[in-house]
């Protein structure tokens, strides 16, 4: 498998592969941070949100033909969670006052710290800026927090959902002026 990453917007037919990647990422990538019972509890508060696929704001990342990551952003109010998670809202955000949401980022366990998450964050930031958003917000797991901090996100609050520790984080979108 090639080490060169490439991406495309996910489509509905990708959902089974994306769900399998999500499950593998949660099962393995959370091990250094959470005991087994909280990794199991993570299934209730995380997962694939197919609304992002329908909204055309969710990417599948590949190395060669292999799916190595996924993630996206949203112009909707839901901050985190999968299709099955409680507390979801499809309400549209106002880019003049609200932060776009970075959502459902997962990296295959064999591909952590190889640029997958950074690529997805760059794609999210660029797309949200094109729609007029000036800030991003996300809900990080403990395994994702170091990446988000390294990419300029700051913690707003620490909380638990179903016993699972989470960190709400934000970042101002920095746009670079176009070259003239």
Structure characteristics:
alpha+beta, 28% helix, 180 residues, 5 helices, 7-stranded mixed sheet, Aminopeptidase
Can you describe what's shown?
With 180 residues, the protein is of the alpha+beta class. It has a domain at 5-78 and 92-133: Gcn5-related N-acetyltransferase (GNAT) (Aminopeptidase, 3-Layer(aba) Sandwich), CATH 3.40.630. 28% of the residues lie in helices and 28% in strands. The protein is built from five helices and seven strands. It has helices at residues 15-29, 36-45, 50-54, 116-130, 145-150, and strands spanning 5-9, 58-63, 66-74, 100-107, 135-140, 154-161, 164-172. It has a seven-stranded mixed beta sheet. The longest helix is centred in the N-terminal third of the chain and has 15 residues, at 15-29. The mean pLDDT is 94.
Short note summarizing the structure:
This protein has 180 residues and is α+β, with helices and mostly antiparallel strands. The chain has a domain at 5-78 and 92-133: Aminopeptidase.
Low-confidence stretches: none
Order of helices and strands: EHHHEEEHEHEE
Question: CATH superfamily assignment of one domain?
Answer: Gcn5-related N-acetyltransferase (GNAT)
Instruction: Calculate Rg over CA atoms.
Output: 15 Å
**Portion in strands:** 25-35%
Gap between N and C termini = 39 Å
Number of strands: 7
CATH class of one domain: Alpha Beta
Task: Please name the CATH topology of one domain.
Answer: Aminopeptidase
Arithmetic mean of pLDDT? 94
Overall 3D form: globular
| Arrangement of strands in the largest sheet | 1-2-3-4-5-7-6
């Amino acid at each position: 498998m090639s080490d060169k990453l490439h991406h495309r917007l996910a489509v509905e037919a990708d959902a089974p592969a994306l769900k399998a990647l999500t499950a593998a990422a949660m099962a393995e990538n959370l091990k250094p941070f959470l005991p087994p019972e909280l990794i199991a509890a993570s299934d209730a508060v995380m997962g694939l949100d197919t609304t992002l696929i329908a909204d055309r704001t969710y990417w599948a990342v590949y190395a060669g033909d292999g799916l190595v990551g996924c993630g996206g952003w949203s112009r909707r109010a839901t901050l985190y969670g999968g299709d099955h998670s409680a507390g979801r809202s499809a309400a549209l955000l106002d880019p003049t006052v609200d932060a776009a949401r970075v959502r459902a980022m997962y990296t295959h366990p064999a591909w952590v710290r190889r640029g997958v998450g950074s690529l997805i964050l760059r794609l999210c930031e660029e797309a949200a800026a094109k729609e007029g958003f000036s800030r991003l917000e996300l809900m990080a797991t403990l395994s994702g927090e170091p990446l988000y901090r390294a990419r300029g996100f700051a913690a707003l609050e620490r909380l638990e959902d179903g016993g699972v520790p989470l960190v709400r984080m934000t970042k101002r979108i920095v746009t670079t002026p176009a070259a003239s």
